[in-house]
Amino acid sequence: MPNPVLQVENLVKRYEEVEAVRGVSFSVEEGEVFGLLGPNGAGKTSTVEVLEGLRIPDGGRISVCGLDPQKSPNELKNEIGATLQATSLPDKLRVSEAIGLFAGFYRRTRNPNELLKRFGLEEKRHNFYNQLSGGQKQRLALAMALVNDPRVLFLDEPTAGLDPQVRHEIYGIIEELKGQQKTILLTTHYIEEAERLCDRVAIIDHGKVIALGTPRELKQRSGSNARIEVRLARPASNGTLNNLESVKDVREVDGTYVLHCHRTAPAIVALVKHLETDNNELVSLEIATPSLEDVFIELTGRRLRD
């Protein structure tokens, strides 16, 4: 078996008294899209920045393309590309100047003009950075990350703060890179992003990996066979929904009751009968299979973005 492109063993990273990363371990194979999924402050960015050589680890072993980021920083930079959580360039730097500047940092480069065309920035090549929209800035960041034709691409929250339309546009770009067998490590706190893009996911919380596998495997491990989301005309009496047939667990989130159940049909029948008895009414009902959000709730007792 070939060695993984990324290998992380018991990674530890501290900031004074705060232990941001506490023994994280995972590996990423060639051509795989691997996601670190977790809430803000979980340790995702610290983990990625250590792999990129931007931060010094306080413990553990790390290998990126067979290199130690601290011992071989110059060799490493030619093998990786990265978009940081926030990209900031000088306001009066033109788009063509930005990508040309980045191309000059590497011994192996792709044609900057072809990258601008691929990312829909050809007509913006003479525009200043501060004249770009949020989506255009992110596309430029991706183009710059690919200018050295990297073996591994690090994407730290690649769609954070973007509107849904632009977010799905970025998804399409990442899926295209995935089709080209690029090795990608991305961090995200968006469930849809992880489920749609990632071959495997490590759910990370409080600096630890609490679950790892393909999205399907993680959802299959969930103790919930189905999820019913209901909104009621008035709040349910305390604990009454937990006692319904087939209902395993109930959580109230922003006025919506989320029922995890073993069998959907008996649970719905029992719910309707209970509402009739309680003189309550059903406003809406939605049935869904377990999501990575459900897995996270089961493991931590809270929602991903609480």
Description:
The structure is a single chain. With 306 residues, the chain is an alpha/beta fold. It contains 10 helices and 13 strands. The chain has helices at 44-51, 73-77, 95-103, 112-118, 134-145, 164-179, 191-197, 215-221, 264-277, 292-300; strands at residues 6-15, 18-28, 33-37, 59-64, 80-83, 152-156, 183-188, 200-205, 208-213, 226-232, 247-253, 256-261, 282-288. Helix 3 (95-103) runs parallel beside helix 5. It is elongated, with a radius of gyration of 23 Å.
Mean pLDDT across residues: 91
Ends distance: 41 Å
Q: How would you spell out the order of helices and strands?
A: EEEHEHEHHHEHEHEEHEEEHEH
Biggest sheet architecture: 6 strands, mixed
Strand order of the largest sheet: 5-6-7-3-8-9
What is the topology?
Layout: E1 6-15, E2 18-28, E3 33-37, H1 44-51, E4 59-64, H2 73-77, E5 80-83, H3 95-103, H4 112-118, H5 134-145, E6 152-156, H6 164-179, E7 183-188, H7 191-197, E8 200-205, E9 208-213, H8 215-221, E10 226-232, E11 247-253, E12 256-261, H9 264-277, E13 282-288, H10 292-300
Parallel strand pairs: 3-7, 3-8, 5-6, 6-7
Antiparallel strand pairs: 1-2, 1-4, 8-9, 10-12, 10-13, 11-12
Brief overview:
It is built from ten helices and 13 strands.
Descriptive tags:
31% helix, four-stranded antiparallel sheet, alpha/beta, 306 residues
